[in-house]
Amino acid sequence: MTEKMKGSNNQYQSIPISKIFKIQLHFINFLTYLLVLVFGLTLGIIISFYLKECTFSLQFTQLSLSSLPRTQHLSPPIAVKQERVGLKDFLKPPPIMHDMDDEELLWRASMTAKIAEYPFERVPKVAFMFLTRGAVFLAPLWEQFFKGHEVYYSIYVHSNPSYNGSHPESPVFHGRRIPSKEVEWGNVNMIEAERRLLSNALLDISNQRFVLISESCIPLFNFSTIYSYLINSTQNYVMSYDDPSSVGRGRYNIQMLPEVSLNEWRKGSQWFEIDRELALGVVSDRIYFPVFQEYCKGSCYADEHYLPTLVSIKFGEGNSNRSLTWVDWSRGGPHPAHFLRSDVNVKFLERLRSKKCKYNNGESTNACFLFARKFLPSTLSKLLKIAPKVMQFEHYDRPNKHKLLSFKQNI
């Protein structure tokens, strides 16, 4: 029995030892895994922090390098040569077909220098402003008139915007159409068109005289004569008179008060020849033109009253009170006489060229009219045949600023 108890005790004692060993083995394994895990996490954290430090150091280094001045070892930038923009280039007018609306155009055109003397040599020009329905059908005649005098004139054409230019355009008028709007006979938009023409012409600082012409107008003299007449004159040529009849004072609207009174109301021809100072006054007018826009409608015919009234009120002292464009009103009616091919001959043209008229002080001039209208398209072939001889279209008589033709004028 004692032996059995010993055997059982030995068996009992052997079981705990193996269990203890297994427990110790599991604990060692667990501790090993734990150490490996802790080591891996620690290593990962260290590597991650190190990489962040390296990135920050690299960025800081790049920032520091970029803030440093370039050294002589870096390639110098390529120098771009800038062309000098002189005053002449600065004053060059924009292209004829620009994107300015009327308000922008009037504002731009009204700008003027306060110093009268020009700081550069220039050739004064005459701006020929054609107010037309469509094509300038007498263009071949005008082309002969202008030929050889390119530096002494500018051309501007205001035609109906619906005109598509279907007729072949004369070279001298090519590209000279300005941005235009609808114009109706007797309507105030006729004055808007005239102001539009003046504004575009004023953008060229060399333009000193401004002539309004229709498509039915012809010149009565050669270019040198007309150029010299205008450039030498100190007067404006705007017809302005007081007409007490129903077609004069009878068109006045009392609502125009107080800007325009009946005593200030004037009438005259639409076709004018003016200097730069008056042209600036017309495009910058913010007092009288709005009154005409509002109250001169219907049978008022603003083109016969606006400019004569404005000139009489503000520019009367330098005005001759006559137009240089001849029109025949002898047949009566609302429109002047038209001339056909059969009307055109040497005697007729010489008669127009020899007309005399007087200035305000009674002194006469040896050339009363420089232009005439209304000549229909049928007159072109006859005019081309006889005009070069009668009007002395000589292509070599270029105006000389030192030897301009002299005229007996009240200057």
Q: What does it look like?
A:
There is one protein chain. This protein has 411 residues and is an alpha/beta fold. It has one domain (90-390). The protein has helices spanning 2-67, 87-90, 102-109, 139-146, 189-202, 223-232, 276-283, 288-295, 306-314, 346-353, 380-390; strands at 125-131, 153-158, 207-214, 218-219, 273-275, 325-326, 357-358, 364-365, 371-372. The strands form three sheets. Strands 2-1-3-5 form a four-stranded mixed β-sheet. A three-stranded mixed β-sheet has the order 4-9-6. Helix 3 (102-109) crosses helix 5 (189-202) and helix 5 crosses helix 7 (276-283). The protein is elongated. Mean pLDDT is 83; it is low at 1-14 and 396-411.
Key terms:
411 residues; alpha/beta; four-stranded mixed beta sheet; three-stranded mixed beta sheet; 9 strands; elongated; disordered N terminus; disordered C terminus
Strand content: 5-15%
- H-E order: HHHEHEHEEHEHHHEHEEEH
Give the overall shape, derived from the CA principal axes.
elongated
State the helix count: 11
Q: How many beta-strand runs? A: 9
- Integer count of domains: 1
Q: Which strand order do you get reading across the main beta sheet?
A: 2-1-3-5
Determine Rg (CA atoms, Å).
45 Å
Residue stretches low in confidence (pLDDT < 50, at least 5 long) are 1-14, 396-411
Helical proportion, percent range = 25-40%
* Cα separation of the termini: 166 Å
Structural class: alpha/beta
- Outline the biggest β-sheet: 4 strands, mixed
Q: What's the mean pLDDT score?
A: 83
Main location: membrane
GO molecular function: glycosyltransferase activity
Subcellular location: Membrane
Membrane topology: Single-pass type II membrane protein
